[in-house]
From TrEMBL:
This is LysR substrate-binding domain-containing protein. It comes from Fulvimonas yonginensis. SUPFAM superfamilies: Periplasmic binding protein-like II (SSF53850), Winged helix' DNA-binding domain (SSF46785). PROSITE patterns: HTH_LYSR. Belongs to the LysR transcriptional regulatory family. The keyword Repressor does not apply. Keywords: DNA-binding, Transcription, Transcription regulation. Residues 12-69 form the HTH lysR-type domain. Transmembrane segments: none annotated.
Amino acid sequence: MSIIIERDLRRLDLNLLLVFHVLMQERHVTRAAARLFLGQPAVSGALKRLREAFGDPLFVRGRAGMEPTPRALALAGRIEALLQGVQEALAAGQPFEPVASERVFRIGVSEAVGAALFPGLMQRLAHTAPGVRLVTLDTDRHRAAAMLERNEIELALGVFDDGPRWLRRQALFEWRFVCLYNPRLIKPRRPKLSLREYLRHPHLLTSFKGELEGFIDEALAARGHRRRVIFANPHFATHPLIVRQVPALVTTPDYVARLWRRDLGLAISPLPFPTPSHQVSALLKASGDADAGLRWLLDTIVAA
């Protein structure tokens, strides 16, 4: 059985460990200060106290920012586990009052899901929880679990595979790919583009790997067809602005296409070949079930 020695712990308060945690993630004093809603001098002062407490520089200046020392790297896992345990203990069984709360939630989300969800969600929060703040980070199916494990985010929203047992996944909605275009520049014979029309026009592609081919190109190749991609970009928001000016097509999730049709006067067509549906889900730690605030946020997202 381990023995807790009070005189050792009196040298260190929990806020210093939180500063250490954020510095490990940001590797930059100014960014850490902004994330903690503190001034830069306060974070520098906390770092000085941490160095004194642990008898080590912990972070030294490097080419890419503040680099952790071997001692800091060794401490990181233990401090992370300690903070996570304290957070879960505080949240367990505690009521959550949205109107009075000033909690900051950190959410991992893809650009497309964020564009579709957050305008309506922020409108709801303005009325039901005006003190609540959201911070979002970019994530995807490959990074979300690790970001949750490192406590960089509390909740992830996107298309995810089944994960380890310590994760919970809740379905939000189904979606399919559709085709978006400017009806003033492209005039199909019918509201639904034919395969011939789809292949005749140039295409824009959302590519996170910097390539000119993706899922749709694989589906077309399986049927012996090929489209001409003239522009690839990792950001969804660029494409509708190009489509407004150029007679080209962009294949995109239907929930994003509906926003662009409404706001930019673009037209939607189903794809002229079958593709499977996909599911947007919320991903969170199993321990989040005991966090009333996180459950409230998830319920609000579902409603939105």
